[in-house]
């Protein structure tokens, strides 16, 4: 029988750094197992080997959290966006928990079950209806006995509060993470106020994930921390940002960038960008530090390497990596060997190789959020009429840009 | 018993498009299984599940060739660059062939065994010595009965000729691919002349791989084809380029770019760039079309989707992808649904999100190639003195840039 | 005897648009008559034909204000920065007024005399001392009977207040313009508060000039206007921005950009940028609209053309320009003729032709302002010791950037 | 009576550097005296003070050649492009010669009369007709006794030969300069062959002007020199490039760039770029070194400062400039003083301040040259039908870019 692992709150209370994992949706889309558009995780059932392998890579990279791949695995989401396999949310969630547990057992990692924003909320369903969806997912997580729970990727703090309230009934530790930046949630609630509300709802760890680049997310969490402290409350902090540079985003984040989701490549962070991110997050007082869309295993490894001293150990995967590029000493070409040092990589400003492209884009800003008819979800495929409507809006947006 | 698959030459003779796979070294480095610097493939022995998974992803993406992961798996390379596990080249090559065969059997793919340039050649060893290295690798490929052979990643046509001559003794079909661009090999031999020499040495398929971006590689193969035709010879053509934009390269390719190998992210091609590449390669008359460093499964899938009409079928992995982004019709946000069409993605010029970076770099140009003392390989780690020498050269290069 | 011209306040009270001129210091530096570093206007005495010609060009371009070229023409400035000709401030100012009057008489323009920030203030001289400097300049302006007075290019509102108080004693209309952006003056006083203080000191027109690009300056004046209105006061508004794009500036403006003052070329605004600026300034309620460093006559003409309807006439110089490029209809090449229309130029995003340069810089931020010893002015040339000090600070700044 | 000045050929024979002037058309367009589109020089008659002032500025900057402002001053050009003042070519040319002579007398400069390509040639008029146009201009130059003659801005070497043959009849020294780059003239004649033909036609100085940036022009002249030397001939060499970076041009030069002529600002060279240009031109063996469109007086001064040692003196205008920025030692702000040194400016890569713009453009390539109906010139304004035709061609070009 393996020794019992320290729980998430015990670790954070002890001041330990907890390394999160990266975003499965984007990584598995590139590997061929997730469909961009619906973004749903049927792969836990149809291609478990692919999901398991990605977990293993993050474990090797240093992750202490195996987040079950349950993103958007609520029945209301699965129904209304083209899922034709008739796999239920419960089936996906169960398989996801099993895969996460299997790999977590191979190292120093905990299993987290997660819920995220629902089409029902955007379509203005009642609190009772929305909470019922979270409860259904929670039942699986309890059955599978995950180590803790995460309510993540919420654009409206109100829905996140509902999720936390549901998850809290389980008695498990609850973390809550919003998809917001320094401008606050989609209804204009500031990061500080969001955090206070989440803590009051019962979250022990609060933070942000997705939608913005690492430095922007760290800034938002810093504002959350200031809000929580000002309110005389206590919490731990988490951050799981994009691995894309997004200096040109508005409050809706990378969704509004013209490059989302199929032309974000030039924005991908290097491992050296990740060192800066990890250091900054640590300085600000965040201790649960991971990633979201765009993070590949080597990004997480870079976070773990930057914080190796604080953690007291290097991640397993560093047996295939020289800290700050030192393994380049073994490269054939002498001029590449000359790059085997921190000063080289730390100051390099990488070129895009795209002289016909600009460095910033103009985000679309439709100003459409919860309650707007364009967001009402339905099971049927988008009609031609609906498409003409959105194309007209897009064209209109361009001509005024 | 499965039906016998058509061989590589039969396919090419029939005018079929053969989709290659992507580069394992870079993909597995990001996943944590290959060490940048030595770049050697011990993972076939130590982490077979990771190698197998990557093969599977390329198969799903539409690859017709499972290239055994044997890059740099020659004993002279394994010895002199920090390989401490005492795994022999033969062990690696055997494991690599088994993994490739296992996955190839799951679909419409052939197994290829490959050899690449050797430290021995760069260190001016004799033709006999160098050929002995290739022979040792070939012995494994014959024992494992691969479907065909590839001599790839050669910077000097002379060494490639030697490789082809050795491989040719097997009776298996031989393809030969140089790591060169339109300027020719590192001794200044033009692509046309290189191709003629390789065909005369016995290669039935000739082309280029690695070192340059897709359009540049296609241009080089076009020059090869012109050379072969002018000489009154016949051959098939292959191309397996980088998935990085490299308009600023000199004749040594991306190795000389300051971003190599750890800051190439902003140069990564989008799937839409791949559509253009696949179409252009096809137009030029190339029929073996694949990828090298930087290619992820979704890049190969884009190649396969672009050529789906010519191939008569979509790749298996397209069940998780809408051609030209059509699956975005199922996205929650209407402005993302507005992007579910070819015209949108085809003309988008993606921003880098890096306004403090330039779009082109100045490549280093040390002008060091076979025969130069700085390239003499040795088993020992780089000494402090050697490092000081290369750092001085690097500094000198910068001040004159 | 010519008809008496309407004064500046009468024009503004009548709701007329008053077009300013461009910055003489930068324009004459490029023509060879001003020395960058000291930036002093001895050319009014030594090369009057060059100064007169530039006035004429701005008059042709549509300027309604001939600002006497008296920038930095205070004795304390002339003394301490390498002026070796022993020309006094009074001599320069008198010559400047005569030149401005001569050209103003040739068209619909008024003559303005101006004072700007003094080394004495930066060196912490007393209010009495600083005011004495302004008084000395004012005496010349009164003797030459200028039409109105401008206190401009102040980084600290306190010194501008002193200037306004002195100028106000003359009975002439007084305009006051700070070299600040939306962040406020160098002591952190907000634009709104600055404006209120200037109005209370007696300025009838308030605004900003220099240091930032047009849109940033318009934004700052908008904040001034909001402040003045909130305080229940009344004023007219002016803006005379740079003709350089400065999105990467901090509160000190373009002085802190690494490109200042000798590599700003890639940032120069096109005439089409000027159309947007003029329209935006007008919309915000600004009626005295001109330019500062970087403005060439064609920039002012573009402002005048954009506002031709509001002014009721085109500028004289438009006889050599087709509105929105229509004169290109007479170009030899048909593809250039195709550019003779507004939609073409309005949406063009001009390339830099510099793929090895970034699009944004990191400004230096020494945080040195009034009261800091590094700003104490002295007559002697910079000593070697002082230079070593600043070079060390510069190096330090770079390594932390 | 002033001492007789050394002629152009005596200077070049003696190995002296002769500094040219900059392009009047672009400089005076920005000042309000030339209309872009027709580009004709009526200003010599209507605004002589503006033309005289620009000559003076170039003289101060170090120019040894006052080129009479006679660009496009042929009657066939004046007639067919909107010149409504009924000023004849002879009137313009006479006034231009007088202005050039007046200013040349004030310093060490010679007067040159010039002819350039004609609409008649593009419209396929006969050699006799075209030569008659040159002869008419030459008659004025002889009457005004210019010091030497320049045939410049020819896109087809054949027309330039005709011009040289006419000018040669005068007995004056003849220089010939084509508007071509390394790809050769618009009919594909290589720079080397062009130069040989011009020398054989009678030109004593050959080179290129306009259409490309300095380094590209120097490269083209280098090819000319190689051609002339290979043919066993002798000549002197001249170069008068653009002051715009044009790495993205095709063979037609900057005319084809989307930014021509009203959005070239981001491409303007800095004075430091000019130092590199002057040094490179000198190294290649060019001794007549000047500028064309985009050159302002400070650009020529930078050329003269870079070659001050070779010329044995600084230009007069350097009394208002510190070599390599040294006058910044007298700047108020210490961090600007820190920029008063060569290493700072020599290595600075200036940002564009335009993150929404790319660094390179795609030139239009209509492939229309002499003989194409779209180039047939007529006196009437462009018709609506003609405009629709060119707009269609432009749109078509864009969609395939």
TrEMBL record, chains A, B, C, D:
Binding site for Zn(2+): 210, 292-293
Alphabetized GO MF terms: betaine-homocysteine S-methyltransferase activity; zinc ion binding
Textual note on the cofactor: Binds 1 zinc ion per subunit.
Pathway entry: Amino-acid biosynthesis; L-methionine biosynthesis via de novo pathway; L-methionine from L-homocysteine (BhmT route): step 1/1
Known cofactor(s): Zn(2+)
Swiss-Prot/TrEMBL GO biological process terms: L-methionine salvage; methylation
A cellular component annotation (GO) from this entry: cytosol
Domain spans labelled Hcy-binding: 6-307
Alphabetic keyword roster: Metal-binding, Methyltransferase, Transferase, Zinc
Signal peptide interval: none
InterPro entries on file: BHMT, BHMT-like, HCY_dom, HCY_dom_sf
Quaternary state and interactors: Homotetramer.
PANTHER family, per database record: BETAINE--HOMOCYSTEINE S-METHYLTRANSFERASE 1, HCY-BINDING DOMAIN-CONTAINING PROTEIN
Described function: Involved in the regulation of homocysteine metabolism.
Protein name (record): Betaine--homocysteine S-methyltransferase 1-like
Organism per entry: Sphaeramia orbicularis
């Amino acid at each position: 029988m393996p020794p019992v692992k320290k729980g998430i709150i015990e670790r954070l209370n002890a001041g330990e750094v907890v390394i999160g994992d990266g975003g499965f949706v984007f990584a598995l889309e590139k590997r061929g197992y997730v469909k961009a558009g619906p973004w749903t995780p049927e792969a836990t059932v149809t291609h478990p080997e692919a999901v398991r392998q990605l977990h293993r890579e993050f474990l090797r990279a240093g992750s202490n959290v195996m987040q079950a791949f349950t993103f958007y695995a609520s029945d209301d989401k699965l129904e209304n966006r083209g899922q034709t396999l008739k796999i239920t949310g419960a089936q996906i969630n169960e398989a996801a928990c099993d895969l996460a547990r299997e790999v977590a057992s191979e190292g120093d990692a905990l299993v987290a079950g997660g819920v995220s924003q629902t089409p029902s909320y955007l379509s203005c369903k009642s609190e009772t209806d929305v909470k019922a969806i979270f409860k259904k997912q929670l039942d699986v997580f309890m059955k599978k006995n995950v180590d803790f729970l995460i309510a993540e990727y919420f654009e409206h703090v109100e829905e996140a509060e509902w999720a936390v309230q549901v998850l809290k009934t389980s008695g498990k530790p609850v973390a809550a993470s919003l998809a917001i930046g320094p401008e606050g949630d989609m209804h204009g609630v500031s990061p500080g106020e969001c955090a206070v509300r989440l803590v009051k709802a019962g979250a022990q760890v609060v933070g942000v994930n997705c939608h913005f680049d690492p430095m922007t997310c760290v800034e938002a969490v810093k504002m959350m921390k200031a809000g929580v402290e000002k309110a005389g409350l206590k919490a731990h902090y988490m951050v799981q940002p994009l691995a894309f540079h997004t200096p040109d985003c508005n409050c809706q984040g990378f969704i509004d960038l013209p490059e989302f989701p199929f032309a974000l490549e030039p924005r991908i962070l290097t491992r050296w960008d990740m060192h800066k991110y990890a250091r900054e997050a640590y300085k600000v007082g965040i201790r649960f530090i991971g990633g979201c869309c765009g993070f590949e295993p080597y990004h997480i490894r870079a976070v773990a390497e930057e914080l190796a001293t604080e953690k007291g150990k290097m991640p397993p995967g560093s047996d295939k990596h020289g800290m700050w590029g030192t393994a380049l000493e073994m490269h054939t070409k002498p001029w590449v060997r000359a790059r085997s040092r921190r000063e080289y990589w730390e100051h390099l400003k990488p070129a895009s190789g795209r002289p016909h492209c600009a460095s910033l884009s103009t985000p679309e800003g439709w100003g459409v959020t919860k309650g707007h008819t364009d967001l009402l979800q339905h099971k049927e495929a988008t009609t031609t009429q609906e498409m003409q409507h959105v194309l007209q809006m897009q064209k209109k947006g361009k001509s005024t840009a």
